[in-house]
Design brief:
homodimer; about 200 residues; elongated
Chain lengths: ~200, ~200
DNA sequence: TAGATTGTTAATCGATTAACAATC
DNA sequence: TAGATTGTTAATCGATTAACAATC
């Protein structure tokens, strides 16, 4: 029996739902509805119910959803009911900021190492990490069993770094370099480029 | 005659096209085709032609597109044929990194000021900027005529900062705080949260 | 019970793709 | 001319919404 394929676009909304639920929990709320969640997120209630129904039945008619329970379910679905170690490559401004970022806590993610190729940076402290030599990238990542990496190098080095990470078993890359990475089908890539986001808005100004 | 409304999703792809074209220019290329561009970006050639056709006819049958010309047209469409000044709010790791980011150059954007509310940060240098007191946020932004801002404050301050920015005439906000901002309809918001991007990928691991 | 809200179905809406005449 | 590639149309595909029976 082939497992049902969930559209990417649906998977992409789950982290947004989860973040909102965690926020409600922090506000000491216990129950919510598709309508309330939708209003907070600017998404229709019908869409939220449809999205969730792809994975099971998590609500109660007349009552809505237990926030705690639904958040738990989403964490399981997204596989962030555990903690994933992340390697950061590039110890410039962005790499350093992301290595020190506090926002990963309780969200299933944790930075555990940072690399650079600059002799002046190798060995210095970035937050609680000592910058490692990129020359040891592959073996270090293999040994640590790391599956997720963030690339924060200059554009011209990003593809080469990606290739090395993938050879070392990395399966998910968050790329801060403003360049499109080419990767095999079994590897997932997401891009963060502030300019792209900003240019999406200048059109409307 | 009402102007044709372009779908958001089409506008959202234009900056990607532009970035790729600028890269080709840097590689000293002069002509490209929808097919080549599509291969680089993992987008179908038909979709690229369809997207571009919403705005005009930029290519030549049999030859393709002049990279220089098409890039120029996209810059005009996206209104980045000029330079937009940006204010950064929050001078922590992320705000500082983004204020120093070199990647805005030649892409129609430029950071011109950075604010914080921490007395220990106000007055210090971040890149070429002196951190300003957030107490003066509104008037300073009005005076400078700034329309675009990036929020890199803690979550609990982000909505309040957004409200102030909007009162001061800001029309586009790039939000790095991991929280959904509520804004009037005429204001555009984009969110960057590395955790959201990462959780989109952990599902597939 | 009355009110509320789910999960699901069918209808609608919108986006993508395939195909090809036009033409460089 | 022959080959290539555009811009566009129509067909297909997929996503969103509206509506409602089920039921808490």
């Amino acid at each position: 029996m082939p497992e049902k394929v969930i559209p990417d676009i649906v998977v992409g909304r789950l982290p947004i739902y989860l973040r909102s639920l965690q926020r409600m929990l922090a506000e000491n709320r216990h129950v919510t509805s598709s309508q309330e969640l939708g209003e907070r997120l600017g998404i229709s209630a019908a869409q939220i119910r449809k999205d969730l129904s792809q994975f099971g039945e998590f609500g109660k008619q007349g009552t809505g959803y237990s926030i705690d329970f639904l958040a738990d379910q989403l964490r399981q679905i997204l596989k962030v009911d555990r903690v994933w170690d992340i390697a950061v490559v590039g110890a410039g401004d962005i790499g350093s900021a992301v290595a020190r970022y506090q926002g990963f806590a309780n969200r299933g993610l944790r930075v555990t190492m940072i690399f650079d190729n600059d002799p002046d940076k190798i060995g210095i402290q970035v937050g609680s990490f000592t910058v490692k030599d990129i020359a040891n990238l592959g073996p270090t990542i293999v040994k640590a069993g790391i599956k997720i990496a963030m690339i924060a190098t200059p554009s011209k080095e990003a593809q080469e770094v990606a290739d090395q990470l993938i050879s070392a078993g990395v399966k998910a890359i968050l790329n801060y370099a403003p360049i499109n990475l080419t990767v095999p089908e079994h590897v997932h890539v997401q891009h963060i480029d502030p300019v792209i986001h900003l240019q999406r808005m200048t059109y409307y100004l």
